Amino acid sequence: MKxxxxxxxxxxxxxGVNPEQTGSKASAAYHLExxxxxxxxxxxRLSAATSGSTESxxxxxxxxxxxxxxxxxxxxxRAVTPPxxxxxxxxxMRQALAGMLWSKQYYYFDADKWLEEHHAHPLxxxxxxxxxxxxFHMVNDHIISMPDKWExxxxxxxxxxxxxxxxxxxxxxFAKDQxxxxxxxxxxxxxxxxxxxxxxxxxxxxxxHAWATLFLHHTEQVLWGKADIDFLKGAFAKLMLNFTxxxxxxxxxxxxxxxxxxxxxxxxxxxxxxxxxxxCVADRGIFALxxxxxxxxxxxxxxxxxxxxSSYGIRALSRCHxxxxxxxxxxxxxYRVQYLPAESDTGMFGGNSNWRGPIWMxxxxxxxRALLQYYLFYGDNFRIxxxxxxxxxxxxxxxxxxxxxRLTRIFLRDEEGKRPVYGGxxxxxxxxxxLSARHAGSF
Length: 443
What we know:
The protein is mainly α and 443 residues long. 40% of the residues lie in helices and 10% in strands. It is built from 15 helices and 10 strands. The strands form 5 sheets. The chain has a two-stranded antiparallel ribbon. Strands 3-4 form a two-stranded antiparallel ribbon. It has a two-stranded antiparallel ribbon with strand order 5-6. Helix 6 packs antiparallel against helix 7 and helix 12 packs antiparallel against helix 13. The chain is globular.
């Protein structure tokens, strides 16, 4: 429960909730005594007013409606699950999609009012320096997919772009609406910058909005055999503004190759490609940053299990940096970047080590899509050892299947019946009550 309600119910703090019984959150309170090994069922029905007797509200009709909704949910998820998917895989997919739907939340933020209340509005003569000063045009008042509406109850635009890829499986219209939302005049900055997140809308995120837009376009073509041209036109016009912002802010060498961003400056700002190449094979062309020789060199490292290829996908940082960290000294202080497979050992980026070791799903998704594009061009003419040193040669489509299988392995039961995602947490691995609660959440 949220803190105020929890304090009231668990700790008896009457001041934890509004005594006038109004507010943005509410909780029903039931007092039950449940003995050891016993169970209790609470039936709840929300309505504008009481409607007759308890029997009419919670009789057979109630059970019938509940059973019908469960049957509809089963039928819906069967329809979006590939026929070749196994039972465990289908269950994981269903829970993942249910989690995405559950993470939608109403979000309200009036930047003009917020800046005025914090005495930091630049148009009102306030000189206080505070985040989001330049976003006074912004009024957010929509249902948005959150990274986690419990722990991170605010949107992050580049996370949202990846959310739409998963959401397109179950609700393509909502997915398109989410991408369109970030390009509306009450979100997009007049300069063309897409808002990053509430903590600092001016942070620079990787430019994945256009990629997600094109992905949804192709997905809709495959699923429905048609394209939403109006959606593409609207997105293109606004993304041109965003492109102009990138060119003006993040293209020091005038090559239309963007650099930097607060997420990976140590990576992106140290790489300056000489520009895209055009290679011809079988009378076809490809517009890419690397040619066949460079691609092979990159993949040789990426598919090396001693470096980037793990049992569960592509690592964010080579494992070789576990024993050989990158170390440098500034003003007598030592700093290091070291491979960390789990929790961070520093407070950088809020203690998040995603950029230094773990399997990062967004990056893996981009890698997979890029390899598929290369496969469409090279076909079986390009084969690479996978894993490096194994002697097993694969085309790029087979490489994609190998990476995908490793990624899904994170969530599937292994030979011991455990799911790697839960690590050594036995409650998550074995507790029948936890497992039943988790399954109940996938309706």
